[in-house]
């Protein structure tokens, strides 16, 4: 007989489109009414099923209830105005194509401030070519707000993922979001050279900077120790075989490279920032920097380097001793 009552649907065809399983209520063998689509990335999208397909307004969230998706489905596929959360606090926003993909000439990567964007052509969620923009208004489409943008620069941004040989992006194509929050100046720390400072008051838990560099596989290292090596995935710190980024000497000064500024934070054992990860439209998945506490405009931004004491440089050990004395 036909399937009746609550049930779930699994299968390889679902996995091919990013779905782990679908749960809902069956009537005469057909999913009907309220149901859930459980995605492979552990998010869950909720909506109503009509004739076995998700159809109408849909809301998605992580298991901790953090919003992940807002949009409409039509006969089982995303349709029209859609918001999709991106790791690090950003969003892809725009009208999806007939396959439910973020493909088209007017798609935006919206930064965590929900005001700054890179707006232009995307293909399956990846930037093809875009310009810096800001939100200047909104319009409603099927009950969902769609931002309206105005470009702020004619400079072109593309998806320039670094290799193990070189940083691929133009070295001084500054990030439009970083530019609103931070700037490089001489550090307040003795002998530290350059440092990163807040241009404006920044709330706690704000993503403020990206950390781009050469992408190195396990076992690959630059010829000289740079002091800028960092794990690509920050949760891989204990894995000696994890991928990592590094910045060669020719890109370390802001005079030579300023496309991202996360590498300009100096170390502190009492930092106001912490390393994280974020997906960037130009640089891909990279380490990022997030504030731990409220930071006043003009303050220097610092992060704990979390070095292994056995192999730490002398300056790090000396700073640890000074920190211990300050703490009493």
The gist of it:
This protein is mainly β and about 325 residues long. It contains three helices and 23 strands.
How are the SSEs ordered, and which strands pair?
Elements: E1 5-9, H1 12-16, E2 19-27, E3 30-39, E4 44-50, E5 53-54, E6 56-61, E7 67-74, E8 77-86, E9 90-96, E10 104-110, E11 116-123, E12 126-141, E13 144-151, H2 178-181, E14 182-186, E15 194-198, E16 207-210, E17 214-216, E18 230-231, E19 244-246, E20 266-267, E21 273-280, E22 284-291, E23 300-303, H3 314-326
Parallel strand pairs: 20-23
Antiparallel strand pairs: 1-2, 2-3, 3-4, 4-5, 4-6, 6-7, 7-8, 8-9, 9-10, 10-11, 11-12, 12-13, 14-15, 15-23, 16-22, 17-19, 18-19, 21-22
Count the E strands.
23
Low-confidence sequence ranges:
none
Estimate the strand proportion: 35-45%
**H/E series, N to C?**
EHEEEEEEEEEEEEHEEEEEEEEEEH
Q: Give the quaternary arrangement of the chains.
A: single chain
- Average residue pLDDT: 93
Class inferred from helices and paired strands: mainly beta
User: Percent of residues in helical segments?
Assistant: under 10%
How does the overall form come out from the CA principal axes? elongated
- What is the radius of gyration? 23 Å
Number of helices: 3
Q: Biggest β-sheet: count, sense, barrel?
A: 13 strands, antiparallel
Please report the distance between the alpha carbons of the first and last residues: 76 Å
């Amino acid at each position: 007989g036909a399937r009746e009552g609550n049930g779930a649907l699994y299968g390889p065809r679902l996995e091919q489109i990013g779905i782990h399983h679908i749960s809902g209520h069956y009537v005469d063998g057909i999913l009907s009414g309220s149901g859930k689509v459980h995605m492979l990335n552990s998010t869950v999208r909720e909506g109503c099923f009509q004739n076995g397909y998700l159809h109408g307004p849909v809301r998605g969230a992580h298991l901790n209830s953090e919003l992940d998706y807002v949009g409409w489905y039509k006969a089982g596929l995303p349709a029209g105005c859609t918001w999709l959360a991106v790791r690090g606090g950003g969003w892809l926003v725009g009208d999806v194509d007939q396959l439910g993909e973020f493909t088209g000439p007017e798609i935006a990567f919206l930064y965590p401030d929900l005001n700054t964007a890179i707006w232009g052509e995307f293909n399956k969620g990846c930037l093809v070519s875009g310009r810096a923009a800001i939100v200047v208004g909104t319009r409603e489409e099927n009950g969902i707000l769609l931002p309206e943008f105005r470009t702020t620069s004619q400079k072109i941004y593309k998806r320039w993922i670094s290799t193990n040989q070189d940083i691929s992006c133009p070295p001084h194509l500054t990030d439009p979001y970083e530019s609103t929050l931070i700037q490089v100046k001489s550090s307040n720390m003795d002998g530290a050279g350059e440092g990163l400072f807040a241009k404006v008051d920044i709330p706690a838990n704000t993503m403020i900077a990206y950390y781009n560099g050469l992408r190195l596989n396990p076992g690959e290292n630059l010829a000289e120790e740079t002091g800028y090596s960092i794990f690509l995935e920050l949760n891989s710190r204990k894995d000696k075989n994890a991928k990592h980024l590094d910045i060669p000497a020719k890109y370390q000064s802001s005079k030579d490279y300023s496309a991202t500024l996360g590498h300009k934070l100096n170390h502190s054992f009492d930092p106001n920032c912490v390393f994280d990860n974020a997906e960037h439209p130009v640089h891909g998945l990279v380490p990022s920097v997030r504030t731990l506490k409220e930071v006043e405009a003009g303050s220097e931004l610092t992060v704990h380097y979390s070095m292994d004491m056995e192999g730490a440089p002398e300056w790090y050990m000396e700073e640890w001793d000074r920190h211990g004395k300050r703490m009493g």
